[in-house]
Specification:
Layout: E1 2-6, H1 11-14, H2 18-26, E2 30-34, H3 40-45, E3 50-51, H4 62-72, E4 76-80, H5 84-93, E5 97-100, E6 122-124, H6 133-138, E7 141-143, E8 160-164, H7 172-182, E9 188-192, E10 208-211, H8 216-219, E11 223-228, H9 232-240, E12 245-247, H10 254-264, E13 267-269, H11 277-289, H12 291-305, H13 310-321
Parallel strand pairs: 1-2, 1-4, 2-3, 4-5, 5-6, 6-7, 8-9, 8-11, 9-10, 11-12, 12-13
Helix pairs in contact: 2-13, 4-5, 7-11
Length: 335
């Protein structure tokens, strides 16, 4: 089969789709991935045939992808939640499609259209106990275990505390406040500074290791606490590792994610006007000291571990699609 994946050109939207795309490739299917060029390096390393539709930089509109649908004629299109234009183009071309989520169904008002009541199923990587209840009740879901996309990186000795504010929301002031609170712990604190340059943090305490980038998937199993912004990737990655979390939400879907984590018992939350060095230190110490948070995180890790693997979901999707016999190569018409 020929599969086409498509997503917004950002780590948070592209990386959740990579495990399923890789599983499809490893199962012998022909896989192509439409996205802006900023994520092509990771996609290319996974041999996923990345390409940029038309002049797409971040978003993909229906008119961007339509010529590529005619050129490739995929048997199935798997489009991220952030690219409804791809869903529209696939529907217009008569090509089966389905949505692929990046976490919990996001709330209104964050700049994305909610892909609900479209009649298409959703590949859902969020454990049901954390997922939006209305979404669970009203949409057709195909459960998929969230598998963090892992790139080789520097290794750090554990146990450690991991601090990240992602690639879009971090500021030197917020990172400095958080790391100063975490530095009060008797632990190594690894800080992924994202869009903030490490040197912007100035002189840091001896037990703090700032890095512009870390291999999060490799680091999380060695952490006993994750302090972050509430992005879906870090949220699910930490839960899969069974690690308690302190969430400092800043925008987008992060406040909803923080609320769900607190309700689950696996996290504490500090809203923007509550963040201080002392508050971070107190919450972090509580999360490390009280076993209930880790017990709740481990229960969610067990729930995630029992979700279907990418290979199992690929088998289900491709078996149900049943494409006609294909003749010719990419770019040629079917006879």
């Amino acid at each position: 089969m020929r599969l086409l994946f498509a997503s917004l050109a950002s780590v948070g939207h592209t990386y959740p789709l990579i495990p399923l795309a890789v599983a499809a490739r490893e199962a012998g299917h022909e896989v192509h991935f439409a996205a802006g060029e900023s994520v092509h390096d990771a996609l290319g390393k996974s041999a996923l045939r990345p390409f940029r539709p038309a002049v797409a930089y971040y978003d993909i509109y229906a008119e961007d992808i339509a010529p590529d649908l005619a050129r490739l004629r995929p048997d199935l299109v798997i489009h991220g939640w952030g690219v409804p234009g791809v869903a529209d183009a696939a529907r217009a071309a008569g090509i089966p499609g389905l949505w692929h989520g990046f976490g919990r169904m996001f709330p209104d008002g964050i700049g994305l259209d909610r892909p609900l009541r479209t009649g298409l199923p959703h590949v859902d990587i969020c454990p049901p106990s954390l997922q939006d209840k209305d979404f669970l009740d009203t949409e057709q879901r195909i459960a998929l275990r969230p598998v963090p996309y892992a790139e080789a990186g520097e290794r750090f000795p554990g146990p450690l505390v991991y601090l990240t504010l992602g690639t879009a929301f971090g500021t030197p002031e917020l990172l400095t406040t958080a790391l100063e609170g975490l530095a009060m712990l008797r632990a190594t604190v690894v800080v992924a500074t994202g869009r903030v340059r490490p040197e912007e943090l100035g002189e840091v305490p001896e037990n703090v290791i700032p890095r512009a980038w870390v291999s999060q998937a490799e680091l999380l199993p060695h952490a006993d606490l994750v302090v972050h912004h509430g992005g879906s990737g870090t949220t699910l990655g930490a839960l899969a590792a069974g690690v308690p979390q302190l969430v400092l939400p800043q925008g987008a879907d992060q406040f909803a994610n923080a609320d769900a984590l607190v309700t689950s018992g696996a996290a504490l939350r500090l809203l923007p006007d509550e963040v201080s060095t002392a508050a971070v230190a107190t919450c972090a110490a509580t999360l490390r000291r009280e076993s209930g948070f880790r017990d709740a995180a481990r229960a969610l890790a067990d729930e995630i571990a029992h979700l279907p693997s990418p290979a199992e979901v690929v088998e289900r999707l491709t078996a149900s699609a049943r494409p006609p016999e294909r003749h010719g190569q990419v770019g040629q018409s079917r006879e």
